[in-house]
Amino acid sequence: MRLSVPWTALVFLLVQGVLPASPVKKIGNSMGRFANATLVRLSEFLSAGYKKGVRPVKDWRDSTSVAIDLMIYSILNVDEKNQVLTTYIWYRQAWTDEFMVWNPEDFDEVKQVSIPTANVWVPDILINEFVDVGKSPDIPYVYVTHEGLVSNYKPIQVVTACTLNIYNFPFDVQNCSLTFQSWLHTIKDINITLMRSPQELKEDHSLFMNQGEWELLHVLSAYKSFSLDNDDYYAEMKFHVVIRRRPLFYTVNLLLPSIFLMVMDIVGFYLPPDSGERVSFKVTLLLGYSVFLIIVSDTLPATAIGTPLIGVYFVVCMALLVISLAETIIIVRLVHKQDLQRPAPDWLKRLVLEKAPVLFCIHTKHRLCSMLSTHSSSSSSSTSSSSQAASDLERFKEPGYGRGPCSLHHTCEMGHTGLVGLDGLGGPPTHHHHHHNHPHQTERDGGGLLGGLGVPPVVDNILQEVTSIRHFLEKRDKCREVAKEWLQIGYVLDVLLFRVYLVAMVAYSITLGTLWSVWQIV
To answer: For the chain, percent helix, then strand, then coil, each to nearest 5?
Structure first.
């Protein structure tokens, strides 16, 4: 029994040594679940007693200064009809949380740590122009430094309202604003500042995707404090995003086809005005331009505020085509079938054929009717010979004989019978045989001329025919002179209206080109 006491003590000591060993091993296994015990201790230290619903200042009189920054990543959509701009931005904000402070020496020199956003106080800074919630990724963490500086960085798809001016389309420059402001807190509680200088913010294009339709010019910033009731003031930071449209696509697909059609309309004036081809050509151009406008109507921006200048340009071009067609119809009417028209008034001939060519330097008016002059000269010789042969028969012309409407398409009326063939010169015509068989009938028909002189009826009929031919040729020459006058008037007016049309077209094109060039440079 004496040996049992030492053995009992030894067993007791062994039992006491084994029992503490088991709990130590268990504790070691539980601590191995954490990757970094220091971060766990730091997180527990920062969250102990922290109130995320309270503004993190020790003295409530101090204002929390929030520094913000903005970087444009991409222009996703510009909706001119709904006046909405969709952009993708990288937004950064930082503030000092006086309750998120620790000594790095107590936590293995850890100077910053990421903690969930839901566990810290976050300022209620929003964008005033928000009209829809974009598809932005959720970033659940913020960085906190040992000095209490909290950095909240996140990408945002911003769908904002913007006043879009499309008058200069497709050379337009848009200025859309993004206003960051605390929705509730006054400037005494939350103040807003810039994280970078305004010049650095303006010139920073490092993140912008510069391959789309829109080009980022610059981002301007402006700070402002305002009051709604002259008592509480609010701070806001406004960023002006200035973008410019690249016009190459619209220039190739809208402007160049329209310019080509207008050039073809000008070239169409070189077609002869006395032919119907010019009218059909211009009608075809007008129809082609109408189809072109139908095709491009979906490309033009549609708003209820105003019409872009390019739309006015298309309408004016259509109006010029209509005016060109109307002018062509008038000229064709003047130079076509001139013999059916009345003689030109003296004031019109004086104004168009005398003053207008001198005033507008139209030097080709004497060569306008070369074709008619050739035909007139070839017929004048026969007219003179006939006039000379029948000059002594002028006294036998009946009143109103051989007079009628001036027409080359309808024979001038020559009494009751009109012109007959000259086969009577070779022998008596068949319808005159009854004159020899019936002297009284002959005397009644032709005796009024030379019947009393004993001249045979055949000679009397020949003289009547010669007299009718003479009057017909005189009337034809007169009709040709009238036609020549109207043809000259038509050609002079055609040249005159063409120059006026060309001057209007060039002036209009230069004006629009200058405006678009200035807008493109700006």
So the answer is: 50, 20, 30
